Amino acid sequence: MNTSKVWYVTGASQGLGLMLVKQLLESGYRVAATSRHAQKLQDAVGVIDGDRFLPLAVDLNNTDCVDESIGQTLGAFGRIDVVVNNAGYGMAGTVEETGAEEIRKIFDVNVLAVINVVKSVLPVLRKQGSGYIINMGSVAGFAGAPGWSVYAATKAAVAAFSEVLALDVKEFGIKVTVVEPAGFRTGFLEQNSLAYVESRIDGYQAVKETQQRYLATSGQQAGDPVKASAILIELAASDQPPLHLYLGQDAYKRASGKLAAMTTELEAWKATTISADYQ
Fold first, then answer.
1. CB-based contacts of 141, cutoff 8 Å, min separation 6
2. 151 assigned to active site
3. pLDDT tens digits, 128-154
4. Which domains can be identified in the chain, with CATH numbers?
5. Would you say the pTM of this structure is higher than 0.90?
6. Of 18, 185, 193, 203, most Cβ neighbours within 10 A?
């Protein structure tokens, strides 16, 4: 395995991002990692190795700040081989009870920050003629659950962005994967990682029941972040990584179930679909 690769990982002070950074450093990789607070990141990683680890305080919605972090990474390591857009958080609640500012904020963090990082790093990867971009999506972006409409919308946007980005950059030797996990024990359902609005409106039973069921699983999710981190490292060593990678048995069941339902519906309405064309 080539451990000379340089990784740039966002949202690295907790959860899957932190686990990934620790595994990368243990395996001998060079890592630039971002968080809103560099010292918090440094303390969480617990490694003092200026030769291989560069903690960066970055506002991912400030393009100048993102550009500066890419420049700092190049200054420290000379190149960037793998980019992991991991920063993000969840939002649960009915759309009519979610404030407009909260909706804008989650799109800023979950979608626009991903685009900002990609825009900044692409000139570097194009010049190198190589590179690998991993965008962290969610199975919710393809097969969502009641009460997660806004969050699902952000992750669907990440998936669509990744799909077309892969087509755009293929000629430059740059690969793209959108990773779409189900529930993992990363603290995702804890207060600092989830914007949760409890519904006060009569009805919305599917939303309320789903929310309570999900919140009750906090810390007991089936997904293992240690195994997920190892999979991401394996992906970067692959000559032909997948465009979509679902992680976890629940993700597989939800995605395969929706694919089957979509195929059935598509065929049932085929005549109507094609009747819209000029004959």
1. 152, 154, 155, 156, 157, 158, 159, 180
2. yes
3. 999 999 999 999 999 999 999 999 999
4. 6-250 (3.40.50.720)
5. yes
6. 18
